[in-house]
Amino acid sequence: MGHLFLRNLPRTRKWRQVIDLLEADGDVPEIARASMEAVQTGLKNVPNDPGFRLTLTAIFDFVDSLQSSDPSKSLWERGFQLPVNPLILDYVASFKRKLDLDLSTQRSRSDPSEMAQNAFTETLVKSATASGSLFGLKPDEAQALLKRQLSGQSFKTLMHEFFTGFTRRYLQSYLTRAFPSYIGPNRRFGSMDSYNAFNDAFDLHIRQAIRITDEFVPGWYGKTRFEGRLTPDSVTRFAHIAFKKIRSEFARGATAGE
Questions:
Q1: Extents of the domains making up the chain
Q2: In terms of pTM, does the model score above 0.70?
């Protein structure tokens, strides 16, 4: 994944602490917590990013349409244009096209919007793949599968994966700029296996921390949808609360072993 606007690793005291942990072979929870602490200000401002707001609003519009009594009609009315007899990947493509157009029209493309878009589409494809085949389904079967994945317990799991994917991308967009100095013989990551093992453990730690949002997200969505308040402003307020919970969980010191 490329980044649009991110530059060099910030030269701040908190990022120096992250580097010190890398140099001292600090464990994953320590590095994850220190990284989250170093990006607190940036992550706190993500919900105000116009591109992120557009992306998150598009996600809930997409989910809401597929949960309606007539998904095809609702998707079309909201700008998610589908071909005749759409399959799973056609739905994913319609989401991307609609969002890309909105971001371009409003000149709101940003790193947070790119991370959120990629996190959602990747999660959607993985979720559908885990429940069936991306290919070989009839159009009505494809729609029914997506509708199941965006409802009930499956929706909670999908949004957990979305927030995990976004948070991981956000933290690693900074960390990966420091990693090249620590890969190679006699360094923190002496091989690609050790580097991959670190990333796997880092991902698991984030997944554990994101559990704090598991009940809040579907609860907020269900109530807000029922009340007809799925607006950009309500989505922004939701995002502020969700990321506040995530930041607090990292600060509390959640570990992968909890």
A1: 13-252
A2: yes
